[in-house]
Amino acid sequence: MITYAAIAVAIAVPLARAGQLRANRLAVATALIFLTSAIGHGLHAYLALANLGQADHSVAIGWLWVLAWWNVATAAVGVYYWTVRRRQAPLRGSIYTGPHQQRLLDEADAHRATLEAVVEHTDDAIIGLTLEGVVTAWNGGAERLFGYTAAEIIGRSVAVLADEEGAAEQRDIRRRIIDQRERGVTYETRRFAKDGTPIEASLSVGAIRDRKGRPTGISVVARDITSVKEAAERRRAVEERTHQAQRMESLGKLAGGVAHDFNNILAIIVNYTDFATEEAAGNEALETDLKHVRSAADRAINLTRQLLTFTRGDTIQPRDVNLNAALAEVQAMLARTIGEHINLITVPSAEPVVVHADPGQIQQVLLNLAINARDAMPDGGTLVLEANAAAIDGDELDMQPSLPAGTYARLLVSDTGEGMTADVAAHIFEPFYTTKPRGKGTGLGLSTVYGIVSEAGGSLNVYSEPGVGTTFRIYLPMVTVPGTATPGASRQDDPPPGSGQTVLVVEDEPALARVVTRILAGAGYHVLTATDGRQALTLFRQHDCDALLTDVIMPEMSGRRLAEIIHDTHPDLPVLYMSGYSNGLLGTTHVLDGDIAFIEKPFTANDLLHKIAEVVPTAVRHSR
């Protein structure tokens, strides 16, 4: 009895000191076996002493049932012991912890506490779920990411973090992990914080399993990748803009190469059409046919100029332009072509409004906007062109691009047409964007307008309402001390005739050279014609010349190089360059240097004669 009791005490006291009376069931069951055995042996000893020297055994018979029932209790304790024993891992060492084992347990507890602290304070959200998706664990990272405290979210469905589509996605992931036993699933999705803010998140979802592999829960690690995706989107946008710039550079080179030859062809078509129109005077049917040819050529000229302006491949000639005069010129052009169903109104400024820009490009801006307005009014309407000055404070919305505060020249083009939705208006300046039917628009008109205006240092503002109409406001830097303002790109008055001046014409396109020769000779000039730079130098040395009219881009020797060679010996010789695409050969940029005379192909006879009259001396004066 004493031995069994000592063993029970030897087991129970260390358990109590270690605080394991409730936790270490196996040790407690062992102590109970020895305790019941000690009590059983004590009962046997008491029974033996009580019946010592007595003749009858009445006392023994009374205690017999007590012993029997106590043995049953001991057996029950034994059954409890083996039940606990089967659930435990094989015993290694003592059944209770001594000082060394306790130190190991303390270190394990410290490790567990450290791990819990790491989980609690990590930036990632770590969430525990039941198999049904109810939140059971919620760390500090989850609270910071989603805005819910642990007290608010534990016990609720994790579907509160997702919309309907996201909730269905969550159910599918849980089914894959639990039923299909996938090790883990990582994916990117959108979740929502407590205040409704969308969060782009990367989720890593896995099953929590017991020792037999049965799923008991789900673990989720969520990481906020909103900033990462935004950075990736910015990089993608930069790369797209870079690729766009590369594509536009390639398109510019292609457009420039095509424009050089195409503008030569158009110059031939336009001028021979004009020649034929003069000869067909009185033949109404033939005049009508030629008018259609010229109209088609004008459309081709306009499209080529749009491509060159859009790709910044053309050469512009900025000068002071009076917007009132430009309005009047555009009105005269539109009055013949816009159609009787459009009521055209021009409102010039009360005071002269002058800007420094290419007059042809100002005209192109007004014409492009006017044509778009006409197309937006198929059943008729009113088109208003207006010029004035306007002050802005620099805080205006929807200015493309933005402008600092100041006073600017302003052009307004308003129509009463179909108007645009906000979605359409947001894209109208994008290259090749058009709402017109296939074959009815190139998508370059408004992008060309934007390129011209921004290149001139100006800005645009668009206001439109479906069913009401559209107004374009164009702001350009105003010239406060203008010089001689030029009204537009071409002049309608008769040019002065020549008086026998000798003009050396250098053009590598023979048909165009014949056109130029015919125009100049018919106006009273003496013309020498060369097809390349070497032939031109030979003719110049053999003849006295009063001016040089040369193409810019030619095989072997450019027009600029030809002029430089001639100017080495005759620095005062006037030079007029002609080109449909100068490729930057006439200036440090695509803006024409101020001391260079230039005429853009395709040109009309009137344009050429006006320009040559500005360059060539008014009286016969040989430069040699």
From TrEMBL:
Keywords on record: ATP-binding, Kinase, Membrane, Nucleotide-binding, Phosphoprotein, Transferase, Transmembrane, Transmembrane helix, Two-component regulatory system
Major localization listed first in the record, in broad terms: membrane
Localization terms from the record: Cell membrane
Catalytic activity entry: ATP + protein L-histidine = ADP + protein N-phospho-L-histidine
Gene3D superfamilies: 1.10.287.130, 3.40.50.2300, Histidine kinase-like ATPase, C-terminal domain, PAS domain
UniProt domain PAC: residue ranges: 185-237
Domain PAS: 111-181
Protein's UniProt name: histidine kinase
Lineage: Bacteria, Bacillati, Actinomycetota, Actinomycetes, Micromonosporales
